[in-house]
Design goal:
By secondary structure, the protein is an alpha+beta fold. The protein has five helices and eight strands. 39% of the residues are buried. InterPro entries: Knr4/Smi1-like_sf.
Length: 179
């Protein structure tokens, strides 16, 4: 399914850290899911379905990469859910999640309206990770056992943004951090 997504623009693959794309390891000792690696190789820094900013590993000198923006958003997500658990806001893990899941999830894409696409690194199957959505960092919805399985739901969640997008994947120019 990832290979069938339409692409607009030319990816700036020179800004992607191919080394980190291949060498990063999650707690299970395994790397990025194959579907994510294919998406990054096709579109680099991109917007998925007109809404979701996908964060690939970035080379030094570039902002908004996996190790920068996605790591920051993962920390923010986890802090929000830790606070919610302390406050007893059980609705935050509904409809499909629980508090232990919230502590494991890792952001890999973030919408322009404050929603997150996340992986559960404890669910690896055939190299792929389960995909979840946190709407406004206030709900947990299971989208699929892999990015490929989740894409139809992600497109549905994107609504009019996907309908108005020039392509499923819009290549973006990554921001430089070194001037």
């Amino acid at each position: 399914m990832v290979d069938q997504l339409s692409v607009a623009g030319v990816p700036d693959l020179g800004a992607v850290s191919v080394e980190l794309l291949g060498s990063h390891r999650f707690e299970d000792g395994e790397g990025f899911p194959p579907s994510y690696r294919r998406l990054v190789r096709r579109a680099g820094f991109c917007r998925l379905f007109g809404l979701w900013l996908v964060y690939p590993p970035a080379r030094d000198g570039y902002a908004d990469g996996w190790q920068h923006r996605a790591a920051h958003l993962t920390g923010r997500f986890r802090a929000s859910y830790q606070d919610g658990q302390v406050e007893g806001f059980d609705w935050m893990v509904e409809p499909d999640g629980d508090w232990s899941l919230a502590g494991r999830l890792v952001v890999f894409a973030y919408s322009e309206n404050g929603d997150a696409l996340l992986w559960d690194p404890s669910t690896r199957r055939d190299g792929e990770l389960a995909v979840w959505c946190s709407t406004g960092l206030n709900a947990l919805t299971f989208l699929g056992a892999s990015l490929t399985d989740a894409l139809p739901r992600v497109r549905e969640l994107s609504g009019p943004f996907a309908d108005d997008a020039s392509a499923d994947l819009e290549c973006l120019a990554p921001a430089r951090t070194d001037g």
